[in-house]
Amino acid sequence: MTDQPGVVVTGVSGRMGQMLVRELAAQDRLKLVGAVERAGHDWVGGDLGTCMGGAETGVTVTDDALEAFASAQAVIDFTTPDATVAFADLAAQARAVHVIGTTGLAPEHISRIDKAARHAVVIRAGNMSLGVNLLTVLTRKVAEALDADWDIEVVETHHNRKVDAPSGTALMLGEAAAQGRGVSLDAVSDRGRDGITGARKRGDIGFSAIRGGDVVGEHDVIFAAAGERIVLRHIASDRALFARGALRAALWGQDKGPGAYDMLDVLGLGDD
């Protein structure tokens, strides 16, 4: 591992992209060596610092991801599912650690990403925060302890510009609850209730999504039975925590062998 592994940020003009750039500048364990945007974007060809309204950084925004990745030890990617799949192939060619915070991934996207992980380190998580990943562990443990007489509902709230629902974090929590119950989430997931839906099905895991204002992220896992409820909650008030988690993952992955990892691995909370 080099003293300061080089990092490329994809989707650099987005809110998370710019947050990652600022967090990289605030620490000294990783260095920014590249910035990628889609072809035709106004920032392509410009100095990243100038594009962000500040001083020059010496890093030029490019739409050539393969060239950018070739000089990097890590790629941090909060973009779109189709873009992430393409970046996974290129990061694997470069043998760079690929940290993926992209949400809305379908099974076919994940399958492609897992193929790339045969050749390089891929760290994928619907949420990069320590608190949320602790919450997934707690959710699984509580689900293990309670039978299907306890209804499970995952309620998530985000800002009004979020394009996918349920959130990646909500799906992480639902998956943790399903693992605790020993069932497939696909078989018990209950989403989008509207109209006369009938009674709630025993054993289902329900999802509700709320959108409004500038909410960074709030997630509740509700276990409800006759006469009592258990509510596990996480509230994110600063988007920078996701960027800091991604940087931690990029550094952690430097001495790991090829494979698919998640933030539980990074934080030492995964199963032995």
Automatic annotation (TrEMBL):
<feature type="binding site">
    <location>
        <begin position="101"/>
        <end position="103"/>
    </location>
    <ligand>
        <name>NAD(+)</name>
    </ligand>
</feature>
<keyword id="KW-0521">NADP</keyword>
<keyword id="KW-0220">Diaminopimelate biosynthesis</keyword>
<dbReference type="GO" id="GO:0016726">
    <property type="term" value="F:oxidoreductase activity, acting on CH or CH2 groups, NAD or NADP as acceptor"/>
</dbReference>
<dbReference type="GO" id="GO:0050661">
    <property type="term" value="F:NADP binding"/>
</dbReference>
<dbReference type="InterPro" id="IPR000846">
    <property type="entry name" value="DapB_N"/>
</dbReference>
<feature type="active site" description="Proton donor/acceptor">
    <location>
        <position position="158"/>
    </location>
</feature>
<dbReference type="InterPro" id="IPR023940">
    <property type="entry name" value="DHDPR_bac"/>
</dbReference>
<dbReference type="GO" id="GO:0019877">
    <property type="term" value="P:diaminopimelate biosynthetic process"/>
</dbReference>
<comment type="subunit">
    <text>Homotetramer.</text>
</comment>
<feature type="domain" description="Dihydrodipicolinate reductase C-terminal">
    <location>
        <begin position="131"/>
        <end position="267"/>
    </location>
</feature>
<feature type="binding site">
    <location>
        <position position="38"/>
    </location>
    <ligand>
        <name>NADP(+)</name>
    </ligand>
</feature>
<feature type="domain" description="Dihydrodipicolinate reductase N-terminal">
    <location>
        <begin position="7"/>
        <end position="128"/>
    </location>
</feature>
<keyword id="KW-0560">Oxidoreductase</keyword>
<dbReference type="GO" id="GO:0008839">
    <property type="term" value="F:4-hydroxy-tetrahydrodipicolinate reductase"/>
</dbReference>
<comment type="similarity">
    <text>Belongs to the DapB family.</text>
</comment>
<feature type="active site" description="Proton donor">
    <location>
        <position position="162"/>
    </location>
</feature>
<dbReference type="GO" id="GO:0051287">
    <property type="term" value="F:NAD binding"/>
</dbReference>
<dbReference type="GO" id="GO:0005737">
    <property type="term" value="C:cytoplasm"/>
</dbReference>
<feature type="binding site">
    <location>
        <begin position="11"/>
        <end position="16"/>
    </location>
    <ligand>
        <name>NAD(+)</name>
    </ligand>
</feature>
<dbReference type="Pfam" id="PF05173">
    <property type="entry name" value="DapB_C"/>
</dbReference>
<feature type="binding site">
    <location>
        <begin position="168"/>
        <end position="169"/>
    </location>
    <ligand>
        <name>(S)-2,3,4,5-tetrahydrodipicolinate</name>
    </ligand>
</feature>
<comment type="function">
    <text>Catalyzes the conversion of 4-hydroxy-tetrahydrodipicolinate (HTPA) to tetrahydrodipicolinate.</text>
</comment>
<dbReference type="Pfam" id="PF01113">
    <property type="entry name" value="DapB_N"/>
</dbReference>
<dbReference type="GO" id="GO:0009089">
    <property type="term" value="P:lysine biosynthetic process via diaminopimelate"/>
</dbReference>
<dbReference type="InterPro" id="IPR022664">
    <property type="entry name" value="DapB_N_CS"/>
</dbReference>
<feature type="binding site">
    <location>
        <position position="159"/>
    </location>
    <ligand>
        <name>(S)-2,3,4,5-tetrahydrodipicolinate</name>
    </ligand>
</feature>
<comment type="pathway">
    <text>Amino-acid biosynthesis; L-lysine biosynthesis via DAP pathway; (S)-tetrahydrodipicolinate from L-aspartate: step 4/4.</text>
</comment>
<keyword id="KW-0457">Lysine biosynthesis</keyword>
<feature type="binding site">
    <location>
        <position position="37"/>
    </location>
    <ligand>
        <name>NAD(+)</name>
    </ligand>
</feature>
<keyword id="KW-0028">Amino-acid biosynthesis</keyword>
<dbReference type="InterPro" id="IPR036291">
    <property type="entry name" value="NAD(P)-bd_dom_sf"/>
</dbReference>
<dbReference type="InterPro" id="IPR022663">
    <property type="entry name" value="DapB_C"/>
</dbReference>
<feature type="binding site">
    <location>
        <begin position="125"/>
        <end position="128"/>
    </location>
    <ligand>
        <name>NAD(+)</name>
    </ligand>
</feature>
<keyword id="KW-0520">NAD</keyword>
<keyword id="KW-0963">Cytoplasm</keyword>
<protein>
    <recommendedName>
        <fullName>4-hydroxy-tetrahydrodipicolinate reductase</fullName>
        <ecNumber>1.17.1.8</ecNumber>
    </recommendedName>
</protein>
